[in-house]
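Ticket #4471: complex job returned nothing on first submit. Input attached below:
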Amino acid sequence: MTVDVAIVKELSADDRRFTLDVAFSSDSRRIVLFGPSGAGKSLTLRAIAGLLTPDAGHIRVRNRVLFDASTGVDLAPRHRQVAYLFQDYALFPHLTVAQNIGFGLTSGLLNPSRRERGRAVAHWLDTFELRGIADSYPARISGGQRQRVALARALASEPGIVLLDEPFAALDPALRGRMRRELRELQARLDLQLLVITHDPDDVDALDGHTIEIRDGRLWEDARPPARDAGPLRTDIEPQ
Amino acid sequence: MSAIWIPLALSLKVALWATAINLVLGVAVAFGLSRWRSPAREVVDSILTLPLVLPPTVLGYYLLVLLGRRGVFGEWLDRVGIQLVFTWQGAVIASTLVAFPLVQKAARAAFENVDPQLEDAARVLGLRELAVFFRVSLPLAARGITAGALLAFARALGEFGATLMIAGNLPGRTQTLSVAIYAAVQAGDDATAGTMVLVTSVTCVIALLLAGWLSPDRANIRRHRS
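Support reply: We reran it on our side without changes. The output follows.
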């Protein structure tokens, strides 16, 4: 299995407690974690990226052990060869588009130069048709462009897997369909391994991968895309 | 004119040194505090804020007790050849202490304003913690820190009480502008005092204007110039 996750994490804030207890494995190139907000999807993603340490269990990606509580393995995020696309893209506001894309390619204490850019950055600027805005700052570009920059930045460091946190939620509906197609094409063209989390059944349909459903910190049912008319799954309308 | 220029030059030297030390010290402490999850955090923060509210003479007294010849560290300082009482270096220590909370508080607020997700993004992109600090946290907090440093500079420039306690009033050696104003007034030299008051006021107004211009609520408008 290229992705093998089994983790337990106990969280408490104020007087609320939440237990994340999920286990899944998959060989699919497009794994989709589907479930309502607050189900623990983002926590799972953060644990895979190394931004959250589980209490127990293991995380393996492409035969590499990223985390194993029983043997004490816990790789730092920078050693996991994992890319993370944050929900609102987390572009660095003080760096240009080109600098953002080249960010992970230099590991020193200085950010990439604004004027000089390497071949890799030029390549990703071309791949995502971002050459025209290479010197713009993230605040000055559109939502769709922001997502492309975030993807280019994530892919530039040639990760083994790309984790995407609600990749289309920050886009307006008109753009969503186009960016879904773009991601799907990109995945096929570059043969990327994606792990996408979403609460939106339309994302599940568009990605057409191995869908795993999570609710209340647990696996709901495995491997079947949800029925489109399943009422309780529409969590974008939350009961008050 | 040298009655004004010598104390002014000394004041600028002392204030610049105090600001430089506070930039390193205040930023380091502020970053530590902004990331420290402990109930003791606010207690430490309160203690570090004390120089802002304690009378400068009290701070000067503490400094004498700690650093004076017969003070806690006095003998040790004497042995390694460091003389702080009645020297301009002593005035730097006094100004640094008094202005420290201004840098620390501004820097802490600035660091707490940095979106933690940006730091996470940098970690996942392959940076170690030190690089995350220098490439993401520090640049994003730079405006707030600079504003705090300008306030600290203005405060250090006007330092009087603690400076007088530890550095004294030695013309040409430890007599800073604010101490010289006091001496001039005591000596009845109102013309010199008046000029020095004007110079101090103008310098401080410029520093405050710059600090206001850099303040965080204006940063949002200006940060994203392309």
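The first strand of chain A starts at residue 3 and ends at 13. Closing as resolved unless it happens again.
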